[in-house]
Design brief:
It is a single chain. Helices cover 35% and strands 21% of the residues. It is built from eight helices and eight strands. It has an eight-stranded mixed β-sheet with strand order 1-2-4-3-5-6-7-8, sandwiched between helices. The radius of gyration is 18 Å and the shape is globular.
Length: 312
């Protein structure tokens, strides 16, 4: 078991609320109640997006479905802008464009890039690979139709937090294996990259191994999905040829070993990677960017590194 770090005092109230909201019985409740509790949780810690970020709503009409995107841009930045296609967290079952409006808007400002947030389909109604298909379709929309909206597909990255980190890493594998789109970077924030972990984290407010297992049981349609590297990217046999990675792990997070091991796997394969350790912070600290200095600093470091890779 990994030794427990010390919780940053600025995020203590948030972490306690996490523990109350996502208690031991959370995943036993009906999905409508789970979503209601998740919605109330993020709204308690929400704040307005920065006023200097412009937003555009886009609806893609795809075979059998529509896919909503939200594009964030620094209002004063010249076009075309480099692009980050971003997938939100939420255990593959919760969240959407509004729940992650604050961090995606802030990322656009820090990275001085357009952030294309994806409102992918959610489990359990839509099992794997529905969310990954939506994310992949959004990624491929950028080179085909983004130019008219001032998006520069020559400087393109994927990113996401938690479950969205798995989707981002899955897109990176798909882009490599299918010959494009060419990605400059992958950015993962406390990602979930495999079904289980051998190395336990002693303190993980709001999320434990049982919760991850429960979320995956709702996400996967078949047992073999848990062995699919596009769903669980740390199970890939080959990491060579993937884009450089910026990985931000939270010290007090059951998923921290995934962040560390993915960075190590990329390094062994000769892929440049950097691990940012958010010390004293729990899973979902993106909710507290405006409340906790350590959370804001870790996210700013992540955004600056993404900006650098987008412009290489």
């Amino acid at each position: 078991m990994m030794a427990a770090g010390v919780l940053d005092p600025e995020i203590a109230v948030f972490a306690a609320d996490q523990d109350r909201t996502f208690d031991a019985d959370f995943y036993a409740r009906p999905i409508a109640e789970q979503r209601s509790r998740y919605e109330a949780f993020w709204r308690r810690f929400n704040a307005p997006r920065p006023s200097d970020i412009a937003v555009e709503e886009v609806l893609l009409h795809l075979p059998g479905r529509d896919l909503a995107l939200r594009i964030y841009r620094p209002a004063a930045a010249p076009r075309p802008l480099p692009v980050i296609v971003y997938c939100h967290g939420g255990s593959w079952m919760f969240g959407g464009l509004d729940s992650h409006d604050l961090p995606t808007a802030r990322l656009a400002g820090i990275a001085q890039a357009a952030v294309v947030a994806v409102d992918y389909r959610l489990a359990p109604e839509h099992k794997y690979p529905a969310a990954l298909i939506d994310a992949w379709d959004a990624l491929n929309w950028v080179p085909t139709a983004g130019a008219e909206r001032g998006l520069d597909a020559r400087h393109l990255a994927v990113a996401g937090d938690s479950a969205g980190g798995a989707l981002a890493a899955g897109m990176a594998l798909l882009a490599r294996d299918r010959g494009g789109p060419r990605l400059c970077a992958q950015g993962l924030i406390y990602p979930a990259l495999r079904p289980s972990r051998d190395e336990a984290v002693a303190c993980s407010p709001g999320l434990d191994e049982a919760a991850v297992t429960d979320a995956l049981s709702s996400y996967f349609a078949r047992p073999q999905d848990a062995r699919d590297p596009y769903a669980m990217p740390l199970l890939a046999e080959n990491f060579a040829g993937l884009p450089p990675a910026i990985i931000c792990g939270a010290e007090l997070d059951v998923l921290l070993p995934d962040a560390k091991d993915y960075a190590a796997a990329l390094a062994r394969a000769g892929v440049p990677s950097r691990l940012i350790m958010a010390e004293g912070l729990p899973h979902t600290f993106l909710r507290a960017l405006h409340l906790c200095g350590a959370a804001a600093r870790a996210f700013e470091e992540f955004g600056r590194d993404m900006s650098r890779l987008l412009r290489v």
